[in-house]
């Protein structure tokens, strides 16, 4: 039985990383419909009209960046989002995933232990709930102070390298160079691994744009957070994250040894 009082206590004990995304250019996060707007792709808004960047987009982008970091550091990392190539299934046939730090005390129905990579332990997998909870990034500027901006575009025929006939469309974006601030938070549950904060902050540093049409200059941003100024991350956490890279470097023969042989 789920006890609401226990859920409230867990939420109170969670560590929260406050985030502010400052948009450097115009933002285009499409809502997928054209109701109430002249644009073919209106910008996403809350029920009260505030611009918003959905939590799912931030979570997916941050997971992608953290996966790149763990792979670069030498940690075996599963391939999302296909369940067959994610933890714990991938650990059954790949001995590289059978690490002590990947064994979190769970097992399959037949008693075999499950192994979950560093990413799945944070962001979750088909068989493991996420330990990070993301909130939407909501614009702090009142909707009445943000005018509707329509950006025209035209479809390109890739074969003929010319504009398609009758393919003009309009995107709704935020005003350019308005430095709009979007505030949100990431909550770390009490049982979140100690390396979570370090990996999250490093991953956020690699996210320079969100939304659509990033290659056309839309959605570029930078982050502000008290956690960047005062991360309070123990040195042992960085040593843990970097240990695989050191082990792999030590296992590779040096160029001097190869030349001597």
Give an overview of the whole structure.
The structure is a single chain. By secondary structure, the chain is an alpha+beta fold. The chain has one domain (17-250). The chain contains eight helices and eight strands. The longest helix is centred in the N-terminal third of the chain and has 18 residues, at 55-72. The protein is globular and about 60 Å long.
Using the CA coordinates, give the radius of gyration.
Answer: 22 Å
Count the beta strands: 8
Q: List the domain count as a whole number.
A: 1
Assign the structural class, choosing from mainly alpha, mainly beta, alpha/beta, alpha+beta, or little secondary structure: alpha+beta
- Helix content range: 25-40%
Q: What's the N-to-C terminus distance?
A: 67 Å
Main sheet specs: 6 strands, antiparallel
The shape is globular
Number of helices: 8
What is the percentage of strand-forming residues? 15-25%
String of helices and strands:
HEEHHHEEEEEHEHHH
Average pLDDT reading: 86
Give the low-confidence spans. Answer: none
Topology, pairings included?
Blueprint: H1 4-13, E1 15-23, E2 52-53, H2 55-72, H3 90-93, H4 118-123, E3 132-134, E4 137-139, E5 149-157, E6 162-173, E7 181-188, H5 196-204, E8 221-224, H6 226-229, H7 235-251, H8 255-260
Antiparallel strand pairs: 1-7, 1-8, 2-4, 3-7, 4-7, 5-6
